[in-house]
Amino acid sequence: MSALVKIRSERDQMSAVERRIADFILENAQLLRDYSSQQLANALGISQSSVVKFTQKLGFKGYPDLKYSVGEAIARADNGDTPQLTASADGVSDASLAGNLWRRKSEAEEATRLINPPQTIHAVADAIEQAGRAGKVFIIGLGEDDIYARGFALKLSLLGILTVHNFDTARMTANVSAASAGDVLLVFSEHGNHPALCKISRYFRERRGQVITVTRHTANPLRTLADIALVVSAHDEQPYIQPLLYQSALQHLLDSVFVLLCEGHDDRHAQLLANLDRIQLMLEP
Question: One matching Pfam family, short form (predicted)?
Answer without folding.
Answer: HTH_6
